[in-house]
Each structure stands twice: as C-alpha cells, then as structure tokens.
Amino acid sequence: MITLDRPCLENIIMPTQLIWFRQDLRIQDHSALWHATQQGQPCIAVVILSPEQWQIHHDASCKINFYLRQLKILQQHLLEKNIPLIVAQVNLWKNVANYMLQLTEQLGVTHVYANAEYAVHEKQRDDAVLKVLSQQGKKFQLFQDHTLFPAKSIRTQSNQPYKVFTPFKKVCFERLQYSIPKCYPDIETQQRITLQNDIRQVSIDDMLTQYPVSEYMLQQWPVGESIAHEKLYEFTQHQVKQYKNQRDLPAIHGTSRISAYLNIGIISARQCLQALFQPYHGEFVLSDKGIETWLSEILWREFYQHIMVDYPKVSKSKPFKDETARLAWRDAPHDFEKWAQGQTGIPIVDAGMRELKNTGWMHNRVRMICAMFLTKNLLIDWREGERWFMQHLIDGELAANNGGWQWSASTGTDSAPYFRIFNPVTQSERFDPEGTYIKQWVPELASLSAKQVHAPFEHKIGHIEYPKPIVDLKSSRVRAIDAFKNL
Ligand SMILES: Cc1cc2nc3c(=O)[nH]c(=O)nc-3n(C[C@H](O)[C@H](O)[C@H](O)COP(=O)(O)OP(=O)(O)OC[C@H]3O[C@@H](n4cnc5c(N)ncnc54)[C@H](O)[C@@H]3O)c2cc1C
To answer: Where is the Photolyase/cryptochrome alpha/beta domain (predicted)?
Structure first.
C-alpha cells in the first residue's frame, strides 16, 4: 500500500492503480498510462527486468543496455509527474504472475494497466497474470498500443487475416484516409505519493554494468523521448522526400534509424504518422513518393505484428509455409561462423555482418542480402541467422526479424519466390556502386577500384588480406533451387 504525502494530515491509504511498463518506455502517447491516470486515483508504476528470459529470447547486450538507459530516463520523467516507478527483477516470466500478485497485495492495488504484447511467451505471461489477479478480484486491463490498428481488425472480405502485404496495406491506406490515429494527450502531474520502503527493488545502474557497450555505441544510440523525437522530426521534415531514392543505398544515411526507438516504445507508431503528416496539418496526403514509401515501411512493421497475432506459429520458430519445414538445410557450423564474423569473401555480405557487430544495426538492403546469402547460397537454416541477428541487433524485435528472415528464406508470408535469389555481387554493384559502404567496414579492400571491390576474386589484383569466397555463387544458387524444388 502507498501513502499520500500530505504533511498536515494523517497518511491516507487509498487503493491504487498500477501501470506496468514493458516495451513501451515513454510517458507521451502511452495508452495504458493515459487510461490509468484518468481514474482520479493515485498511480504507481512497475517494470520487471528478466535477465534469464532475455537470454532465452536471445536479446542483444546492446539492446538491453539501450533499454536500461531509457528506463533511467523514464523513471525520472515519471517522478516529475509524481509517479514512482518500481524496478523489480523476476528472472523468468513463468514467475511473473506470482510476483504481480504479491506486489498488488503489498501495495493495495486493485487495477493493473498495461499495453498488450503479441508474441507467444508474452501472451502466456499475461494470461497467467490475468488469472491470478482476477481470482483475487483485481483487474488487469490491456490496451492496444503497439500497432496503429488493433490486432485482428484488418480482415479480408471473408473475414480472414491477410497473408500478403499489398492488399493489407491497401486496407490500411483506406483507414488512414478516413482518419490517422491520434496521439493521447499528455498526462497531468498527480498528487505526491511516497512508496513504502519495504518494496524490493533493483538498481538500474548495477544492472547496466552487466551489459556494457562501447563508447561508440553509446554515441550512436542516445536515449530519451526528446532525442527520439528530434530524430523523427529531422527525418520526416527534411529527409523523407529523398527516402524513395536513397533508402536502398547503405553508404548514405537515407533511412530514419528509428527502429530501436520504436521497438522499446520510446516513440509510438502513432507519433510517427503524426510527424509524417504534420506538414499537411494531420491530413492523409500522399503527395510525395518518399512519404508514401516510408509509410509503407511503417506498415510492413504493422503487417508482421498482425501476422504474429494471427499465426502464433511464427513466434514458435515454425515456418509460415508448412511445406518448407521439410527443407534439408545444411549443417555447416564452419560456414555459419565465417558468415557471422564477416569472413565469407563476399564483400557486401562481410561489410553488413561487420556493421552489425560494431554498431548493433545493419542497413535493411544489406540485411536482405546477408539473410539471403545465408539461407540460399549457404543453405543454412534461417533460424540460425534469425538468432544471430537477435543476439546482435539493437533493434532486434521478434515479428520484424522473423518476417525479414522468413521473407529472405522463402519460407514466410509474402516471401521472395525461392527461385529469385539475390546475387550479392550484382546487389553490391547496384546499391553500393563506388564501394563506399564496403570500404568502410572491410578496410582490407580500401585500395581496390569501384570495379574490383564488389568481387575481388574475379579480378587480377595483388595480394590482399581478404578471404576467397567460401562458396561458389552460381552452383550454390542451383543447389538452393533444387532443395526447394524437391519439397
Ligand atoms: C533479415 C531481416 C531482419 C530484420 N530484423 C529486424 C528487427 O529485428 N527489428 C526491426 O525493427 N526490423 C527488422 N528488419 C526490418 C528493417 O531492416 C529495419 O526495420 C530497418 O532497417 C530499420 O531501419 P530504419 O529505422 O532506418 O528504417 P526505415 O527505413 O526508416 O523504416 C521506418 C520503420 O519502418 C519499419 N520497417 C522498415 N522496414 C521494415 C521491414 N522490412 N519489416 C518490418 N518493419 C520495417 C521499422 O520500424 C523502421 O524503423 C529486418 C529486416 C530483414 C531483412
């Protein structure tokens, strides 16, 4: 239970509202927070840190560090609104329901608010919490916040979920034309409350020491809602018009780089759309190809979230296309290691894999090239690549990562047809014509010309400390097509 901090009166005990923060570390435009604070009763907040669960989910150290740094800022912002944030540690989600029961009993909380999460483990955790709390007559209310449109609300005429992106996007466009989702108003500052001091808490700073990152990474990925909004504003007001032409060029800073902020909820998808259409006073105006293309990308994110709700198998490591479960992937740990370390001898692939290791991020075009190289040329199971990406991405997120991997492996919804295999050299020549991106991440190739740099193995050049390709691109392509044909 908590006490109202009023010096002249006796401490007054009141039933309280508890807001449970998860992948939504912000105070602006936050559904659960806004609803909780509208009830006229004091609110407190909790976040549960689960290191063993993060490990099971292969969350990258840099992503956890990013999360914890943002959590510190959130705690401060909540305090400015007089909402204390309890930072708890429950290592595994299977124990969260018990913890929530104890905590709500201890605080005298009758109503818990949170934003819904869609992956299988998250849903199991929330179902268990709902069960124990309702047995005690307490409410656990979930809000749709993570997506623009509620899960299961975008349906075909025969009321089925969409399996293909383009018609899904068409419906989204129609809805957006009608109305762009509005952001929630800012919350008011509540009366000051003091937490009783026997609540067990962990120190964010102590936990941060377990997830160290380089100074470079800290500079690349600053935290805070205002910083995320600056990035969003800079992109939507100044760069989005060039997005269509520049988005595929990894040497150029031509995309928004907001995925990490979106994924842990430092900003919301609603805020992205409001920023995008701000110059048009919030009207859905697609006057520009850049705006339309960026909006489509935001809707890819939406699509994969909806797919995860409708087809839970994708968050259980199952392929979307059932028949591809029979595919005879190669067991080739040596090749996998070369790929992971950026030592395949294919420059664009190595550049991407090294960018990932050094920055926690990789350009989207290069993600596709690297994923296709692993799953087609090396014929290695997409789940191995999916795991490696999660272990290293600062923006690692189950739905988008799984969607991207299954697209590349031709096992997923709306995925690349199995016979359309990217040639990494052609891709490299097309999207990094001068080799600028390659040379940034593979400095061994810095002295090569723009003609040589994409495939040094095809040119007569002097000795360089760079490996020969670990696989022949032509014959491995045929091998992959045969493997799919035989399904
Ligand atoms: C193999 C593979 C793995 C991927 N893993 C992830 C992941 O773990 N987490 C993640 O957020 N994205 C993932 N993506 C999608 C995409 O690469 C990133 O969202 C994008 O590169 C982030 O950079 P940005 O913020 O500058 O994007 P922008 O180009 O500025 O796009 C804006 C936003 O749209 C969304 N978006 C863009 N492209 C996609 C896409 N193809 N699928 C889903 N959402 C998209 C993201 O939220 C992104 O921040 C993956 C793609 C592939 C091919």
So the answer is: 15-148
- Confirm or deny that 298 is annotated as ligand binding: yes
CA distances from 180 to 15, 78, 135 (A): 36, 28, 39
Walk along the chain (487 residues) and give the pLDDT tens digit of each residue.
444 444 333 444 465 899 999 999 999 999 999 999 999 999 999 999 999 999 999 999 999 999 999 999 999 999 999 999 999 999 999 999 999 999 999 999 999 999 999 999 999 999 999 999 999 999 999 999 999 999 999 999 999 999 999 999 999 999 999 999 999 999 999 988 877 778 889 999 999 999 999 999 999 999 999 999 999 999 999 999 999 999 999 999 999 999 999 999 999 999 999 999 999 998 999 889 999 999 999 999 999 999 999 999 999 999 999 999 999 999 999 999 999 999 999 999 999 999 999 999 999 999 999 999 999 999 999 999 999 999 999 999 999 999 999 999 999 998 788 889 999 999 999 999 999 999 999 999 999 999 999 999 999 888 899 999 999 999 999 999 999 998 8
Query: What CA–CA distance (Å, rounded) separates 343 from 466?
Result: 8
- Cβ of residue 99 lying under 6 Å from some atom of ligand 1: no
Both tokens of 424, joined, read 């990494």
Query: Is 405 an active-site residue?
Result: yes
Domain 322-485 fold is DNA Cyclobutane Dipyrimidine Photolyase, subunit A; domain 3 (1.10.579)
Say which amino acid occupies 420.
Answer: R
Ligand 1 centroid–CA 364 distance in Å is: 6
Is 175 annotated to bind a ligand? Reply is no
Q: Which of 329, 358, 429, 444 is catalytic?
A: 329
Report the separation in Å between the CA atom of 405 and the middle of ligand 1, taken as the mean of its atom positions. 11
Closest CA to 436 of 253, 294, 290, 258: 253
* Of 231, 364, 384, 410, best ligand 1 pocket probe by most atoms within 8 Å of the beta carbon: 364
Regarding the beta carbon of 355 and ligand 1, being less than 6 Å apart is answered: no
The hierarchical CATH code for the domain 3-145 is 3.40.50.620
Ligand 1 centre to CA of 267 (Å) is 15
Q: For residues 186-223, b (16+ Cβ closer than 10 Å) or e, as one string?
A: ebeeeeebeeeeebeeeebeebbeebebeeebeebbeb
Is 304 annotated in a binding site? The answer is: yes
Task: Establish whether residue 263 lines the binding site of ligand 1, counting it when its CB lies within 6 angstroms of any ligand atom.
Answer: yes
In whole angstroms, give the CA distance from residue 414 to residue 416: 7
- Does any ligand 1 atom lie closer than 6 A to the CB of residue 405? yes
Distance of alpha carbon 228 from the chain centroid: 15
Fold category of 147-184+224-310 in CATH: 1.25.40
Distance of CA 130 to the CA centre of its chain: 25
Residue 403 CA: which ligand 1 atom is closest? 42
